[in-house]
Amino acid sequence: MEYMLLVYSDEQDTATMPPAERDQWIGAFMAYTQALKDADVLRGSNRLRPTSAATTVRLTGGKTQTLDGPFAETREQLGGYYLIDVPDLDAALSWAARCPGTQRGAIEVRPVWAM
User: Fold this and answer.
1) Domain ranges, residue 87
2) Which of 41, 51, 72, 82 could connect to 5 by a Cys-Cys bridge, CB 3.0–4.6 Å?
């Protein structure tokens, strides 16, 4: 079954990391990504640009509205995702717990509805 591991963190926190710490942080994600590949469970992943690059689109009263940035004001922002294919929720939660993103934020685990 496919699950999305949605990586949330405070993008200001990561933007202000000292370079050596940021390199270590990125290295941890690269090692985690390689572990997912080695286990043959990774189906896709990407980092997202900061929320300042986002645009939100809504349809209100038949009119399209576009807003700069995300709609919700939150302390943590969606920074990336992993799409994995594992046997069950327990396996997905196990992979989520190993994600470096848990050290500075949260990982939302969500099953994918096949369409």
Assistant:
1) 2-111
2) 82
As given in the structure block, the two tokens for residue 24 are 């270590």
Per-position DSSP letters for 21-41, written without gaps between them: HHHHHHHHHHHHHHHHHHTT-
Question: How far apart (Å, rounded) are the C-alpha atoms in residues 71 and 97?
Answer: 28
CATH of residue 32: 3.30.70.1060
Q: Is 16 helix (H, G, I), strand (E, B) or coil?
A: coil
Given a contact cutoff of 8 angstroms between Cβ atoms, the answer to whether 86 and 79 are in contact is no
Rounded CA separation 54/37 (Å): 29
What digits encode the pLDDT tens for the residues 12-70?
888 899 999 999 999 999 999 999 999 999 999 999 998 888 888 889 999 999 988 76
Number of domains composing the chain: 1
pLDDT at 72: 63
